[in-house]
Amino acid sequence: MVLAKQLIYWYLKNKRELPWRKTKNPYHIWLSEIMLQQTRVAQGLPYFLAFTKEFPTVFDLAKANESKVLKLWQGLGYYSRARNLHFTAKYVAEELNGVFPKTYKELLTLKGVGDYTASAIASICYNEPVAVVDGNVYRVLSRFFGIDTPINSNKGVKEFKELAQTLIDTSQPGVYNQAIMDFGALHCKPQNPLCHECPLADSCVALAKNQVKNLPVKEKTIKIKKRYFNYIVPVTPQNETVLEERKGKGIWQGLYQFPLIETTKKIGEKELIESKQFTTLFPKETTISLFYNKDIVHKLSHQHLITRFWIVKTEIVNKEMINWAEVKKHPVPVLIDKFLQEYLNEKS
């Protein structure tokens, strides 16, 4: 309880002024928490403002088409969050008459809502004493108590959740949860934590044992997979190109891209134009060139995309074409958005 009081005292003096902290509207809290999963506040804030302006209520978000939601989300990454957000908005609007569940257990039934998000909404909006455990909380608790259990292990997840639950201030759980998260984000930072001016310094096990840099502990992650993407960018005399929706359950579902030829290794122009996918796309003679002089490596959490953009000047493409003026209206991955900015700037 002493730790909780120290954190809350620190928080009331140092907390960040954020728009979702000025309300207990569960729609806004839910929106902010989904956006801030694996995302820094500075990056997520403009998206929160854009979404609440475009979709003031859960009914507005529910009525939007998925493509519009993904376009507004563009650049925030982890697009399954946006698809789950839209799905849940429709469920809350249509099945629950726009009223969010009011308990932790009920909130967990919503698609895209896990332990952390359910805890945040339940504590902040409904004063239910359930502890949040995110990256910031793991860091504060592992250092303060000197715990070296890997935070990404099943044992660690259970151990830290149980510990966090024993520490929560039951009289103001929402304030406490926000306090410990902000403390981890602003004070007990991953790199260069402010130990020399820390209100918890006298009781911090990691500081006493000179283990701050070694905590928290993470188990080794899975091996990074390399994929080779060859984007084919058709350019016709009629100022048309091809943009198609990415299907399936892989990365970037529902976003748009130029025709993609994925290979098991890096290939050159000769191999590309002799591939079946290329000859199917372009029945007539083409002029082909690479837009970038070097490969673009786009890094995702568990895979690296070694990418090339091939500009193909042609009279005809065996695909439905659109005018270049329409391209920017579609939601695309950041990788393609950056290419478009440079390519269109060069064309103009």
Folded structure, characterized:
Adenine glycosylase active on G-A mispairs. MutY also corrects error-prone DNA synthesis past GO lesions which are due to the oxidatively damaged form of guanine: 7,8-dihydro-8-oxoguanine (8-oxo-dGTP). InterPro entries: A/G_AdeGlyc_MutY (IPR005760), DNA_glycosylase (IPR011257), Endonuclease3_FeS-loop_motif (IPR003651), Endouclease-III_FeS-bd_BS (IPR004035), HhH-GPD_domain (IPR003265), HhH_base_excis_C (IPR023170), HhH_motif (IPR000445), MIG/MutY (IPR044298). Its cofactor is [4Fe-4S] cluster. Its EC number is 3.2.2.31. With 348 residues, the chain is α+β, with helices and mostly antiparallel strands. It has two domains: 2-214, Orthogonal Bundle (Endonuclease III, domain 1); 225-347, Nucleoside Triphosphate Pyrophosphohydrolase (Alpha-Beta Complex), CATH 3.90.79. The protein has helices at 2-14, 26-35, 41-54, 58-63, 66-73, 80-95, 104-107, 115-126, 135-145, 154-167, 173-186, 205-208, 269-274, 276-281, 324-327, 334-347, and strands at residues 225-235, 240-241, 244-245, 256-257, 260-263, 287-290, 296-299, 303-313, 322-323. Strands 1, 5, 6, 7 and 8 form a five-stranded mixed β-sheet that branches.
- The N- and C-terminal alpha carbons lie at a distance of 63 Å
The number of helical segments is 16
SSE string, helices as H and strands as E: HHHHHHHHHHHHEEEEEHHEEEEHH
CATH architecture of the largest domain: Orthogonal Bundle
Q: Could you please say which CATH topology of the largest domain applies here?
A: Endonuclease III, domain 1
* CATH class value of the largest domain: Mainly Alpha
Helix content: 40-55%
Shape: elongated
Main beta-sheet annotation: 5 strands, mixed
Tell me the total number of β-strands.
9
Roughly how many Å is the radius of gyration? Answer: 24 Å
The SS-based structural class is: alpha+beta
Number of domains: 2
Mean pLDDT rating: 95
CATH superfamily of the largest domain: Hypothetical protein, domain 2
Low-confidence stretches: none
What portion of residues belong to β-strands? 5-15%
Domain HhH-GPD: 35-186
Family: Belongs to the Nth/MutY family.
Organism: Tenacibaculum tangerinum
Enzyme class: hydrolase
